[in-house]
Design goal:
The chain is of the alpha/beta class and 338 residues long. It is 31% helix and 25% strand. The chain has a nine-stranded mixed beta sheet, with helices on both faces. A four-stranded mixed beta sheet has the order 3-2-8-9. Strands 5-7 form a two-stranded parallel ribbon. Helix 1 crosses helix 9, helix 7 packs across helix 8 and helix 9 runs antiparallel to helix 10.
């Protein structure tokens, strides 16, 4: 059997609640609609990859609760013939996230219940039984057991990634956007054993200790190069990629690349939930197909854009040929920001 891509770690049910505008503390706002969907990297990236290429073998690895949310996730993933669920285990309570979608500025705010994700560790699946060329594990800072210290490797996550690499599996990581100061201690040990580091500007800045937006929210593009270099110096072996709403930036150890986002009509954007996971799916697929970093970033940009056409994380994602057409047909943002 041809080897594919394995996605491990965080899974959840997303309850997407659409409001006109996010309220101040103690204020009331009306929920206009509620939609339940799959969420978390394991769900989003597995489905994203499955839709990009129906022939690709995708292994989903996570803990599910033996509850209504757990069975909802299992049933939804089962609908895709190329997603393998042999590594799923039922225990504890299924994580869920309340996603508050603000119609006024298209932003979203997350309230998450970790559930059994705190139990997910290096023993939750067997690396030797994977049929994968690439293993993506997400999210650092959200998987408590893997964030624990390890005397030899720094963290349990780093130890897991090292074991995967020793088996000839390329590794990929993502980080959760969290308002704390844990990044600089917990993330770097894993980067030493990472082939593909694909994160947003907030996570990259916090890890490197360099702010990438000013107080007004403007992207400090002049600092991107410094952050890419610093992340690479932590030990990332192949690609470092930082994705932002304005565009994405990548470094492969020899060449810097930048790809502006697609210009979409505001009326066509229904939601931004899962755009980062969609971007990651496109980039991992490019790596799997041995495309260049630049071409992979273009596919990832199109995947992220396609996800915006629907409220949930995965419904809008297109197939690989459709993503190429989408990228080529839409105008790009002004490249002067790069």
């Amino acid at each position: 059997m041809t080897k594919g891509i394995a996605i491990a770690g965080t899974i959840a049910v997303d309850e997407i609640k659409v409001i006109d505008q996010y309220p101040q503390k103690s204020e009331l706002t009306t929920i206009k609609s509620v939609q339940k969907s799959i969420g978390g990297a394991v769900s989003n990236c597995s489905v994203g990859l499955a839709k990009i290429d129906e022939s690709l073998v995708v292994e989903a690895i996570a803990l599910l609760g033996d509850d209504e949310r757990g069975h909802f996730l299992y049933d939804r993933l089962s609908k895709y013939k190329n997603i393998r669920l042999e590594h799923m285990k039922f225990t504890g309570e299924t994580p869920f996230t309340d996603v508050i979608q603000d119609l006024s500025d298209k932003t979203r705010t997350f309230f998450t219940f970790k559930g059994n994700s705190t139990l997910f560790n290096e023993h939750s699946f067997e690396l030797t039984k994977l049929n994968a060329r690439i293993l993506h594990v997400a999210y650092i800072l959200l998987l408590d057991a893997l964030d624990q210290q390890d005397s030899e490797y720094g963290t349990k996550m780093a130890k897991l990634l090292k074991k995967a690499q020793d088996l000839g599996i390329k590794t990929s990581i993502d980080i959760v956007s969290e308002n704390n100061n844990r990044y600089e201690n917990i993330v770097p040990p894993s980067l030493k054993y990472t082939n593909y580091c694909v994160i947003n500007e907030y996570e990259a800045g916090k890890t490197a200790g360099i702010e990438l937006r000013d107080k007004g929210g403007n992207l400090l593009a002049s600092r991107i190069k410094q952050v890419l270099f610093k992340l690479k110096d932590f030990g990332v072996q192949d690609w470092v990629v930082i994705h932002t709403p304005e565009g994405s930036f990548g470094y492969d150890g020899s060449t810097l690349h930048s790809v502006p986002s697609l210009k979409l009509e505001k009326e066509s954007i229904k939601g931004t939930v899962g755009a980062g996971d969609a971007y990651l799916s496109g980039l991992l697929y490019g790596a799997y197909k041995e495309l260049s970093l630049l071409d992979s970033m273009k596919i990832a940009t199109a995947a992220a854009a396609s996800s915006l056409f629907e409220e949930d994380s995965t419904s809008g994602i297109k197939s690989f040929p459709e993503l190429i057409t989408l990228y080529n047909s839409y105008p790009k943002r002004d490249e002067t920001f790069i």
